[in-house]
Amino acid sequence: MLFEKIKTPGLSHLSYLFGSNGQAAVVDPRRDCAIYIEKARAAGLKITHIFETHRNEDLVSGAPILAQLTGASVYHGPNPEREIVYAQTAREGDCFKIGQLEIQVLETPGHTFDHLAYVMFDSAYPTNAVGVFTGDALFVGDVGRTDFYPDKREEVAGLLYDSLQKIIALGDQAMIYPAHGAGSVCGSGMAEREFSSVGHEKLNNPRLQIESRDKFIRAKINENHYQPPYFKLMERINMEGGDAAPRIMRPLNLSLEQLNNCDVDHLIDIREPLAYASVHLPGSMSLPVGMISAFAGWFIAEGESIALVAADEEQLATAMTHLVRIALDNIVGGYVGLISAAKQGESIEQTPMIATEEVKSRLAGNTDFTDNATNAKNSRTWTLLDVRDLDERSESAIEESEHIYVGHLNERWRDLDRDHHYTLMCASGQRATVAAGWLASQGFQHLDIYLGGMSAWQAEQE
Q1: How far is 331 from 265, CA to CA, in rounded Å?
Q2: DSSP letters along 250-314, please?
Q3: I need a labelling partner for 180 at 20 to 30 A (CA). Which of 108, 248, 279, 461 fits?
C-alpha cells in the first residue's frame, strides 16, 4: 500500500497520492504533475482517480492535466460558481474503491460552496475511518477562510461550522489530511506540524473550541484576510482547466546586453533583500525567491512579461517553478552576474537602510537627511510607511506611522507623491524591501528601508 504527502514549497500546498492492488488516486494535484505519475509507477500503481476538494484560489490545479496523462477520472463537488468542465460531480455518500481502500464523499461547503471532504476507510478495518482529506475546511490548528462570498458572509461561515461537525463526527481516531500547511495564504493560524487527528484538533484547534454556531459565525466574519488579484485568475483557470506546465522549468539565460534590450513588463530581482538594497538595476523590483508565492500575484497580472535577476542558476529555476504554479509564466529569461555587471560600469542603484535611532530622530522632527537620489542634504517631507498586515498593526504600531498593506501598493502607489520621502517598514525589513522595490520600479526615488522594523523598535523599548 502506498500513501504519500507531496508538499509544494512556497504555496505550502499539500497533495496526496495513495493506492493499493494496482490502483492509485491523487487528491488536489498541482500543475506540474509528473511527480504523481513517477511515484505511482515506481510503486507499480496506475492512477485511476483524481479527487479535488474544491476550486483552488491560490494555485493552478493539475487535475485536468493529470487526467489527460493518465486517463483517470476527475471528481469535484456540486454547486460550483461555473461548470468544472474537466470533472464529474461527486456528491455526499458516493463511494470509490481504490484497491483495498474505500473513499466516501462528504459535502463540506463553507470555504467554497463546492467543497468536499474525502473519508478514507480500509476494507480490512471497515468500522472506523482511517483518515479524511479535509481540503481547506480543516487545517492543523486552524479552519478555512470564509471571505470569498462577501455578500453571504454569515451564510458561508455557518456552512463551514456545519461541515466541521460532520468531520468531527468521524471520530477522534481519524487522521486529517489538509490541503495546506503553515505559511499558506488560506489560513493564518496553522501549526508548523503537518500531521494531526480529529481528536487532537477537537482538543487544541482554537476554532473548534467555539461550541456555539452563532459565536463561530461572529468569529469568522471578523477575521481579516487579503485576496491578491491573481486569485480571480486561479478561480477561472480552475474551472476551465489549466494548461500543462512548461517541460523545461528553467528560464532562458540572458546576457547583460539581452537583458538591457528586452522589453518586459516587470524586471524582478529575486535575490535576498539585503542584496537588492545594496545593488540593483534601475527599474527593477525586489521579490526574493522565497516570497514569490506570497506576493507575485499582487504585482504581476496575467500574461505580463517577466525578466528575472538572480544570484545563481538555482534561484532562477526555483523562481520559475513558483511562478508557473500560479500561471504567471510569461518569463522571457533570467540573468545572473549583477556584481560583475557593476564592475563593468553598468548603471546600478541602491536603497539605503536605516536603523531605529534614525527613525526616532525623524519622528522627533529632525528630517534633514541625505537624499539618495541627489546625495544632498534636504528637509523633504517624510513619512514612515508601515506595510504589515492589519492583524500585525492592531497588535503593535508606531503611532506616527501611516499604513498601507504591501500588497495594496499594487494600486495605492498612485495615491503617493513621488517627490515625498518614504521609509518603508514591516516586522523585519523583508516585506519593506518588496514595497520599496515596487515603488522604485514605479519611479519613486526618495526611499529607504527601516532595517529590523517593528522587531527592532520593540527591542529598543525593552
Answers
A1: 10
A2: SPPB--HHHHHH---SEEEE-S-HHHHHHSB-TT-EE--GGGHHHHHHHH--TT--EEEEESSHH
A3: 248
Distance separating alpha carbons of residues 205 and 193, to the nearest angstrom:
13
- Cell numbers for 102, please give them: 474505500
- Running along the chain, 462 residues long, what does each successive block of 10 average in pLDDT? 94 96 97 97 98 96 98 97 95 96 98 97 91 98 95 97 98 97 83 94 96 96 94 96 93 94 96 95 96 97 97 96 97 92 86 96 79 56 96 95 98 96 97 98 96 95 72
Q: Do 451 and 354 form a contact (C-beta atoms < 8 A)?
A: yes
The answer to whether 63 and 86 have CB atoms below 8 angstroms apart is: yes
- The answer as to whether 150 is a domain residue is yes
Q: What grid cell was written down for 305?
A: 512579461
Distance, in Å, from the CA atom of 268 to the CA atom of 24, rounded to the nearest integer, reads: 40
pTM over 0.85: yes
Question: Has residue 348 been placed in a domain?
Answer: no
We report the CATH number of the domain holding residue 38 as 3.60.15.10
Question: For the chain, what is the domain count?
Answer: 3
Are 276 and 231 contained in the same domain?
no
For 37, the grid coordinates are: 505519475
Work out the burial of residue 364: count CB atoms within 10 Å of its CB; fewer than 13 is exposed, 13-18 middle, 19 or more buried.
exposed
Per the structure, the complete domain to which residue 175 belongs is given by 2-240
Count CB-CB contacts under 10 A for residue 137: 29
- Where does a domain end: 314, 343, 372? 343
Question: Which pLDDT score is estimated for 345?
Answer: 81
Q: What is the pLDDT of residue 187?
A: 74
Helix 292-299 × helix 430-441 angle, to 10°? 30
Q: What is the pLDDT of residue 365?
A: 86
Dihedral of alpha carbons 428, 268, 335, 341, sign: negative
Whether residue 247 is contained in a domain is answered as no
Query: Where a domain ends, among 320, 343, 366?
Result: 343
According to the model, what pLDDT value does residue 346 have?
Answer: 86
Closest CA to 35 of 76, 24, 317: 24
User: Is 410 found in the same domain as 360?
Assistant: yes
Rounded distance, CA 346 to CA 101, Å?
Answer: 62
Asked if 9 and 120 sit in the same domain, the reply is yes
Q: How many CB atoms lie within 10 A of CB 212?
A: 10
Residues 110 and 178 placed together within one structural domain of the fold: yes
